[in-house]
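for the recovery benchmark. tokens below, seq after
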């Protein structure tokens, strides 16, 4: 009989590429991961890994087993959700990941609604970059997370994660001009490697120019203050632009950011997901009504 815990390690190895990365993500030692994978090979009766020096790759049998592992782990997730549904009302810890804008604009109201309507739930919030959400969900570090997608940027969640849409926001330029008219301005963009950075640079490329980036800032409140002081222009989403400082005039652009609720495949029937989704939608409606721009 194949051990699902070992299958999870094999799946993570197929995604992360090294035993050290798997160990780091799942808080094991590299030696423990190697031992568990060796035990899985004995259970399977076939070599699942090819080791060349420090490099480890999956054999054809290993790749086949990973494909089946996805289905096995999804079924186990569904079973756990079904068991949780037999309890009287949603209870227990609910680990929620969120990017900073959503954490600030949506989660305070969301937590208040959950406390009011479902006091048995124990929500716990962690800020996380959307690019890291899939790994955190697969590792069991989070139950649910808010992620965002931008125009010009491919989705960041993988096939082991399901999503449902929550919010679509317009992006705004922090000046009363078009994107093309801001081509010679200094630009404020997020840290390289983030989705926000990629979106801003590619939006400028689509408009036919390379932005002259002078500041890398991830916090949108700071970005708006820098723009108000005349230190550059930037792109900001609706949730971040609810109360722009004096000196900033926002111009809506035909570029969107989409916020999604993400969770492991099989978790969709968990009794905690429905009340969380309802509370998030209530919070989103309040936040967008307060921060709408024409």
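predicted aa per position
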């Amino acid at each position: 009989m194949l051990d699902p815990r070992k299958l999870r390690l094999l799946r993570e190895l197929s995604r992360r590429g090294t035993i050290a990365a798997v160990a780091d993500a799942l808080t094991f030692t590299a030696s423990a991961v190697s031992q568990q994978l060796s035990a899985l090979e004995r259970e399977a009766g076939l070599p699942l890994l090819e080791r060349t020096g420090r490099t480890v790759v999956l054999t054809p049998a290993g790749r086949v087993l990973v494909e089946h592992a996805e289905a096995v782990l999804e079924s186990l997730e569904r079973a756990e959700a079904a068991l949780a549904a037999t309890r009287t009302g949603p209870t227990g810890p609910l680990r929620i990941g969120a990017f900073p804008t959503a954490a600030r604009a949506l989660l305070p109201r969301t937590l208040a609604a959950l406390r009011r309507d479902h006091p048995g739930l124990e929500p716990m919030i962690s800020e996380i970059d959307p690019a890291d959400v899939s790994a955190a969900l697969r590792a069991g570090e989070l139950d649910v997370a808010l992620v965002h997608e931008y125009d010009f940027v491919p989705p960041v969640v993988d096939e082991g994660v399901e999503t449902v849409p929550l919010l679509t926001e317009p992006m705004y330029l922090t000046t009363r001009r078009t994107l093309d008219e801001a081509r010679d301005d200094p630009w404020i963009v997020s840290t390289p490697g983030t989705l926000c950075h990629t979106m801003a640079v590619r939006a400028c490329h689509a408009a036919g120019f390379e932005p002259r980036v002078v500041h890398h800032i991830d916090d949108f409140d700071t970005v708006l203050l820098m723009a108000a002081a005349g230190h550059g222009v930037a792109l900001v989403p609706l949730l971040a632009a609810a109360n722009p400082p004096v000196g900033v005039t926002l111009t809506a652009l035909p570029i969107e950011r989409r916020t999604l609720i993400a969770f492991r495949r099989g978790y969709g029937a968990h009794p905690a997901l429905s009340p969380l989704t309802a509370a998030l939608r209530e919070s989103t409606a309040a936040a967008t009504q307060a921060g709408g721009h024409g």
